[in-house]
Specification:
- It comes from Zizania palustris (Northern wild rice).
- Residues 1-11 have a biased composition (Low complexity).
- This is Calcium-transporting ATPase.
- This protein is α/β, with parallel strands linked by helices.
- It has 42 helices and 26 strands.
- The strands form 5 sheets. Strands 10, 11, 14, 15, 16, 17, 18, 19 and 20 form a 9-stranded mixed sheet that branches. Strands 8-26-25-24-9-21-23-22 form an 8-stranded mixed sheet, sandwiched between helices. Strands 3, 4, 5, 6 and 7 form a 5-stranded antiparallel sheet that branches.
- Helix 31 links the parallel strand 24 (808-812) and strand 25 (826-830).
- Helix 9 crosses helix 12 and helix 33 (851-893) runs antiparallel to helix 34.
Amino acid sequence: MESSSSSGAASARRRSGGGSWGSIGSGADPFDIPPKGAPVERLKKWRQAALVLNASRRFRYTLDLKKEEQKEEAIRKIRAQAHVIRAAFRFKEAGLVHIQPQEPTAPQVDGALGFGIKEEQLTALTRDHNYSALQQYEGISGVAGMLKTDTEKGINGDDSDITARRNAFGSNTYPRKKGRSFLAFLWDACKDLTLIILMVAAAVSLALGITTEGIKQGWYDGASIAFAVLLVVVVTATSDYKQSLQFQNLNEEKQNIKLEVVRGGRRVLVSIYDLLVGDVVPLKIGDQVPTDGVLISGHSLSIDESSMTGESKIVHKDQKSPFLMSGCKVADGYGTMLVTAVGINTEWGLLMASISEDSGEETPLQVRLNGVATFIGMVGLSVALAVLVVLLARYSWLRCFFFEKMPILFICVALFSCRYFTGHTYNPDGSVQYVKGKMGLGQTIGGVVRIFTVAVTIVVVAVPEGLPLAVTLTLAFSMRKMMRDKALVRRLSACETMGSATTICSDKTGTLTLNQMTVVEAYFGGKKMDPPNNVQVLPTTVSSLIIEGIAQNTSGSIFEPENGQDQEVTGSPTEKAILSWGLKLGMRFNDTRSMSSILHVFPFNSEKKRGGIAVHLGGSEVHVHWKGAAEIILDSCKSWLAADGSKHSMTPEKVGEFKKFIEDMAVSSLRCVAFAYRAYEMDDVPNEDQRADWILPEDDLIMLGIVGIKDPCRPGVQDSVRLCTAAGIKVRMVTGDNLQTARAIALECGILTDPNVSEPIIIEGKTFRALTDLEKEEAAEKISVMGRSSPNDKLLLVKALRKRGHVVAVTGDGTNDAPALHEADIGLSMGIQGTEVAKESSDIIILDDNFASVVRVVRWGRSVYANIQKFIQFQLTVNVAALIINVVAAISSGNVPLNAVQLLWVNLIMDTLGALALATEPPTDHLMERPPVGRREPLITNIMWRNLTIMALFQVTVLLTLNFRGTSLLQLKNDNPAHADKVKNTFIFNTFVLCQVFNEFNARKPDELNIFKGITGNHLFVAIVAITVVLQALIIEFLGKFTATTRLSWQLWLVSIGLAFFSWPLSFLGKLIPVPERPLGDFFACCCPVSKRAADTKGDDADHSDA
């Protein structure tokens, strides 16, 4: 029963498109692109298919394909230049081998503002990787001396020292190209073809008006159109400019990496922009090399230089190859570097200054909205063409050059021209507007211009140019708010994809737990230490071995202040917990480390889950220390140390005793870490030249003991997990801890509810790894907890879930998590514990490493989609109503109730102001009470169709009734016909605008009865509605000459408000009408076999691309 239901769920997900990437083919929708890694052909295809009036504005926030090509070319050139320089130096050094060696002479060194070396000399040294010059400077210690740097304690770091270094060597910033100015955005807004035509029409109208009516009265028509166009341009440019600034700030935040440096002997956290020449920077696996520099010391340090050289080759760094390039990543090991060049003097700075940072990136939703805008435009053309056929049947003589180029413009011109020039268009007093032979050329041209301007304005309203840009607006708003919620968005598409997430694969440590680790239990000398720091129960020989292993086999550090203050422990949470425990045992960190020298290091590896180190104590004595996952270390031990220091063989009974202790700690949700060592002979250690490839011995180990580390669950994590479950999102825990610890934490977090569950609900990584691909898919569907997992197991789980149709979000912090983060639909890296490699592979950075922040990202993702749907519903209602009213009125009477200026004002309300009001709605709890949105679920749902249809019908019915019967209904029959007609048209315009204002409230809650819920929390919405109403009142009461309106009596204002107010109860009643769950598109597919076959083909292609 369970398998069948999961199978049904998977098929439902496939139908909704979750996890499907689509395919490029004849049947594929050009407006359907994947969230990640869309091919260039697909990006070009949708651009060609879109119906666009202003390309510079519409495509502003999409990827500039031409700039991308130029960027790649610039990177290739800089890489080639670097290769040539280094090849020349290698050639020169190779030639010197055959020349009689001479005593090296140190190069001439000139002091620079108190330092022993100049900026250009340092830059040349590192950029050219000139090893011989480094030797002439007496090596790294010589360079450090010139820079007044202690290689152990770093620079002094006081204000005067920092200022002096900045003045001498520059800061770690590079010149960036200035952002676009407001004037550039104004210019872009002016490029709209329809607005250009309207401005030309305004100029002609102004000239004709002044010529025929004089300057006192004749300038109103032309000036009012020009002013309306300028208002649209300014408001549009202001909105776009503000969005641009938001994206610019977010981009700067993304690049502002925080990292540790050693200053005054203390490790401090600084911004990458604050690094100085002479700084000592610790490096560990996953870090980005922040500047150019030289290696002071390192162990198994390997660097991935592909970002600079373009070659995916890992380069080992040591004293013979010490040069480090900024922008590269630490692939393995750890070490410390001396900063020798910053900012524009580094290769990375040179590269970044040479290319423009293009933040453009189209998201799937943005592209789909381009499709919707194109579809609406096509529907408008189809309706207009049908009207044209009717008119041409009556007036077959009409021809227009614009028919081929601008059909919708031709239709509108045709509507008016046919009636106007054949004497079928009448003035309000009943007289014919155009009398052949009796009207002057100026009057005739004036009539044509009026027809033309109204026609072009209808085009502006009919084609929803601002619809795709609403996505950018809501994404910019969401990204800014998400920063406050501790989430930094690196990839725009991740915002909306997160709203479709069906499962979250979360790490345990630091995400579900607090990452505040402390050693609470210890088992040494074959017995439990109570308390865990009671070192007195052990002899000195045993305790010294334990302390030696803690102090040497660590990537952490302890700063010991000279004034007797508390010691500062730095490193990963696990390392900090163990080092803090070591201090309680009486460890003196620096003294212990000075008693032995490090020969070789095997850095902790998340695959092997252990790390080791070989230290030389003097003479021939060498100790090899290992630390790692308790059961894995236990398997390598052949003996153990007793409390009296005696060595005993590891019998099966003793193994069982150790395992029992591990299990008891794991059940208490403790992380178990074991310590072991073995003695070694110096004669067996490889020479220094061969030591880099030495594999540390990990057999015949002697077990020292085990510690249990407590990491409490985060407060509120249970509520967050419960919220996800209610929202249709399954939370899965993937951890490197053993199965019992994972089970205990999962029960505490609410991921598991039954403590007795078994495979595959709770499974070990190696068990999952051993399954066949089909078995992996079936197991993945049921897995809630995966323990003892490696990063590769996480990757396999993600792939299996995506094949089942899931939209997968994955958290990760380590370098080895990068493939899983990249493969997932949404990669979430950790801001505190995450490495730079993990962050670069992710889509969103969780700044506080908190699972609750992941849930907030889901809320924002769903909010993006919901806000866009609200805006679509609102805009389509305006589009449909405005188009039908003007077209019907034009065909029937030859006059339109809404003129050019009025339509431009309506377009402003609908486009920019509407987007600001509705696309910036904050997320609500209601969003988390519905299932995830399928990525290919229709943008216009059945609920939206119902609401849209009801409102559009209501507005069209009311306004057309007023258009044809308004004079009698408003009791204007006794007025002057011209004045009565003006009052009627003003009343229609006023009612139409107020209908949109009231309908904005309806659009806020498409599927909820209470449309005012949470309205006080959205100050922007309230402000925009208030501004719209105030401006509308000003237009009606004071700007009548510009808008061709007249003042309305307070009675007519009340009637207008009353008619618009009726939108609310009508919407309330409409929401009680049930709608089918099946999308309307499916009904059309059933009726049209061709469409159904195309849809099926597309679905099959998508599934194949998944597989």
